[in-house]
Amino acid sequence: MYANVLIEYNVKSLDKCFTYKIPDKFKNTIKPGMQVIVPFGKTICNGFVLSISDTYNDEYEIKSIYQIKNEEIVLNDELLELGKYLKETTLCSLISAYEAMLPSDIKVRSNKDHNKYVSYILLNWSAYDTEKYIEEHKRSKKQIAILEELIEFKEILKTNISGTSLNDLLKIGIVREEKRQVYRILNNDKKVDNIKLNEEQEQVYNRILFDQNTVYLLHGITGSGKTEVYIKLIKKALKLKKTALLLVPEISLTAQIIKRFYNVFGNDIAVLHSGLSNGEKQDEYLKIIRGEVSVVVGTRSSSFAPLTNIGIIIVDEEHSETYKQENNPRYDAIEVLKKRSAYHNCPLVLGSATPSLDSYARATKGVYQLLELKSRAKKSILPIIHLVNMEDEYKKRNMIISDLLKELMAERLKNHEQIILLLNRRGYSPILTCSNCGFTYKCPHCDINLTYHKTSNHLRCHYCGYTVLYKEKCPNCGDEALNDLGLGTEKLEQEINKLFKEARIIRMDADTTTKKNSHEDIINKFMNHEYDILLGTQMISKGLDFPLVTLVGIINADQTLNMPDFKANERTFQLLSQTSGRAGRSDIPGEVVIQTMNPTDYTLNCIKDNNYAMFYKHEMINRKNMKYPPYYFLATIKVTSRDYELLSKESLKIASYIKREYKSGEVLGPTMALMYKVNNYFNMQIIIKYRKLDNLYQVLKTIDEMYILDKKINVEIDTRPKSI
Ligand code: ADP
Ligand code: ZN
After folding, report:
1. pTM of structure
2. Domain spanning 384-426+502-622: which superfamily?
3. What's the rounded Cα separation, in Å, for the pair 310 and 366?
4. pLDDT tens digits along 16-63
5. Cα of 224 to ligand 1 centre, how many Å?
6. Which ligand number lies closest to the CA of residue 374?
7. Distances in Å between the alpha carbon of 609 and those of 352, 382, 557?
8. 198 CB under 6 A from ligand 1?
9. Alpha carbon 253 to its chain's center
10. What is the dihedral of CA 329, 335, 336, 339, to 10 degrees?
11. How far apart are CA 38 and CA 19, in angstroms?
12. 688 Cβ neighbours under 8 A, 6+ residues apart
């Protein structure tokens, strides 16, 4: 018997199987999807068994498998197939596809045993023999106590017994030690489950059919109770003796949702997200492989959770861009889940208050089934949204906070209600310039201004991390005329502090959330009303349900609106609607103030009227005119090098190769990427717009292969870019 083994080397040029002989002793144990250790060249390597065959026809001498690394079948048939699909559609190597599916401790490279064990002490002799022994021999009081306890309770935790007396008993052989694996995460929350679906939720629930592969788009306004619909659907899957998979965007921000799931499903659930330690991840993974849980809740990578017999797959906040992986393999989790739901013949439910244009377009064409929740679950109403023209405010010298927002904030603080403020830029101020000579602080390695961080008194590059100490004099002319222009969360915090001296403010952005659990910490404290105002970047926009928040302020709406990307409007609509949706979720109605220089902008006005359909209609016209998705598909090729001349030459070569070989689309570029220099590397970009795939993947694959071994030029191909 022979095994085809894919070895661990993550070198694209080596991405193929090697045949090994299966030694007799492993004949009955080795199965496809297992991890084995094999000799390779002069070393030994880990690898996956992809298939097993009886015959072997190669002229070389064949080596034998050394060892089985892991008794579990970590890649079942479905996942083995899925890897090939990833390779084909994202142009990654097969080994990197399989590695993306596994938590790092189970990955082929790792050889350590990361299981956590607890030791128990048990009687090795019968109770009768033990009693007789106690009668006939003189033993210490302590030892007799241990033995008697064991006769009564069968086993004791080893940590509860002290050293020497136990060691003697072990030596004599009366007792033995047994190591048992334990899982790190155990949920002790009590089951509470008393929410009954309202009529609208019930209707949506009833429209979703099991044992049938349909994709549903659940468009439900913020606070409409989508989570409860998910829970009921999952319960139904479990009743049908099937399993369920729920994807959430960034779990640290959705701690609330996880808690709700623990409450309902107790220990029948495994969670997988980046906030877990490697050991915790591995444990959760083992629970799934061993079939010990029926529900998995997790972020992007859990789209590969090795559940079998899946009855339903749900993606919450389906528009979230965290579902797309931005490094190799560049997969889109929703596409992966479409594959999986087809394999299991089960429904796939995509839920959002602000669906992506792609998904909504599919729903209007009938490719997806559209389901809608139009009212909030608790009889609250949607917040009133005000657009404030900042041009008028500037004339009044209100540079940061408008009169209206100030007034409403004062009112909320007086009523002991809470406020959320969104400003999508961290640091103190994004630009420092000298009003004498015009000098601006720029990163020496990247094409971007340095951001001033006042708390630490540093200037920092948000791309490469370059940091310099801030000095009050201009480094160019020596004048003390440095001005901070623009606004970051740090400065906003300081400003609010000045305006409302009594208010308790907490800031949430990349700078205040570097420690493990700091997200959760901030959220819990705000939830417990230890703070009045939560201000932060887009981190604060998602999935949070604070009953006391009755006011949301968007400090600078133009910032996302003016991003040079075809998705700027869509992202603004999503971000601002989601953030607005945090207001007035309970009994007290909410209000939202959006500050902008463009109060007539149609995206902002659609947000104000809470009119997704209108936004969709309008934006689709843009996309059609500009030949962007969902009318056209995109592929991008990013070419990077330290050598600018070489980069220009090679980029041109690549573009003209595509133009020559692929006739069914439009090739744009090469152009300088938006960030043309990062960390001393220059970036160029080629964009392909197409409607018919034709031989595109073949052409792109050829390009990829041409540069695999090139050390001076790096080529990154994205067959499903979320932005350009
Ligand atoms: P969404 O995810 O759609 O924004 P949630 O699922 O967070 O909304 O629900 C919003 C709030 O409404 C939550 O506090 C939830 O407990 C509550 N809720 C949902 N469904 C019901 C229901 N049928 N009856 C009472 N409260 C509900
Ligand atoms: Zn930099």
Report:
1. 0.86
2. P-loop containing nucleotide triphosphate hydrolases (3.40.50.300)
3. 24
4. 788 999 999 999 899 999 999 999 888 888 899 999 988 887 667 789
5. 6
6. 1
7. 18, 10, 16
8. yes
9. 10
10. -140
11. 10
12. 634, 635, 636, 637, 658, 662, 665, 666, 667, 668, 696
